[in-house]
Task: inverse folding
């Protein structure tokens, strides 16, 4: 039987790369059920390591992370409550799209991109 997630311990925290695509809310609940939260990423080294492992382990080039502006439009926060002290968004989306793009996807090529939350994607969890 194939596992649903691959555990990846790092100095910056213990991550899980989960490769059964789910919408953002369901992905978050899956992480919570595992005793984790959707991943927060706080430095470039961790970001690069996760990108490489995402491709190598799951075969996906994008996944959900915990960055979102679900509660307050335009104010992005991590689901685990940690500070947004590192940002890998390369593109600013047009303001009129903001109401639809509340959940952030980690993409290997285009950085972190706000997306519609209902699209199923692989996802990353992180232990507290």
Result:
């Amino acid at each position: 039987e194939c596992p649903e997630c691959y555990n990846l311990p790092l100095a910056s925290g213990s991550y899980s790369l989960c490769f059964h695509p789910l919408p953002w809310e369901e992905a978050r609940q899956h992480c919570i059920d595992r005793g984790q939260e959707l991943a927060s990423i706080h430095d470039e080294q961790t970001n690069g390591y996760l990108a490489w492992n995402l491709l190598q382990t799951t075969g996906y080039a994008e996944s959900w992370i915990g960055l979102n502006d679900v509660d307050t439009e335009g104010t992005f926060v991590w689901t685990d409550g940690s500070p947004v002290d590192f940002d890998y968004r390369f593109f600013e989306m047009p303001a009129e799209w903001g109401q639809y793009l509340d959940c952030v996807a980690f993409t290997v090529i285009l950085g972190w991109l706000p997306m519609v939350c209902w699209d199923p994607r692989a996802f990353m969890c992180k232990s507290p």
Observations:
- The mean pLDDT is 91.
